[in-house]
User: Fold this.
Amino acid sequence: MTAAGHFLMNVASCVFGVLLGMFLLLAADHIIDRIDPMGFDKEIKNGNVAAAIVMGALIIGVAIIIYAAMLPAPTLPTG
Assistant:
């Protein structure tokens, strides 16, 4: 494969990873909104800073999990 082919494969892989990560993050946000009876959206619109901090922490936590899941598997050194 040529250098251009490798470059395009890397770009396509990056775009796919970003789209997959965004989809999973939005799905997790939807699930959190369904599970928690508090209604983060309403509370944040009413100016509840604590609800915004909790929602931000949940999004960061889910993003870290998604990032770790999308990393390539480590390879063992040979030789």
Summary: The chain has a mean pLDDT of 83. The CA atoms of residues 4 and 65 lie 32 Å apart.
